[in-house]
């Protein structure tokens, strides 16, 4: 028997995506790779975050590009403050 894999909490996955976009707009495959998500899993999370106005999607030369919205930036900053306050 192997060691059971720990599943990342949903909140951590969402914050990983927002953190990745702090650096600027990115292609979905780059975000998925940086956040250690499958492409399909990333698309589900991106749709969720977009529906809450935390990320936006645009199209450039036929490719989807994801960006952080001002609301997404604020949510990420608030999350960091909580994590810093808890020293996590």
Structure in a nutshell:
By secondary structure, this protein is of the alpha+beta class. The protein has four helices and two strands, in the order αααββα.
Structural description of this entry:
With 88 residues, the protein is of the alpha+beta class. It has a domain at 21-81: Winged helix-like DNA-binding domain superfamily/Winged helix DNA-binding domain (Arc Repressor Mutant, subunit A). 55% of the residues lie in helices and 14% in strands. The protein is built from four helices and two strands, in the order αααββα. The chain has a two-stranded antiparallel ribbon. A hairpin with a 2-residue loop joins strand 1 (55-60) and strand 2 (63-68).
Give me the CATH fold name of one domain.
Answer: Arc Repressor Mutant, subunit A
From N to C, what is the helix and strand string? Answer: HHHEEH
For this structure, what is the CATH class of one domain? Mainly Alpha
| Strand segment count | 2
Helix content: 40-55%
Shape: globular
Average pLDDT confidence is 93
Report the biggest beta sheet as strand number plus sense, adding barrel if it closes.
Answer: 2 strands, antiparallel
**Residue ranges: pLDDT <50 for 5 or more in a row?**
none
Question: Any chance you could write out the topology, listing elements then pairs?
Answer:
Elements: H1 10-21, H2 28-34, H3 39-51, E1 55-60, E2 63-68, H4 70-85
Antiparallel strand pairs: 1-2
Helix pairs in contact: 2-3
Descriptive tags:
single chain, 88 residues, alpha+beta, Arc Repressor Mutant, subunit A, 4 helices, globular
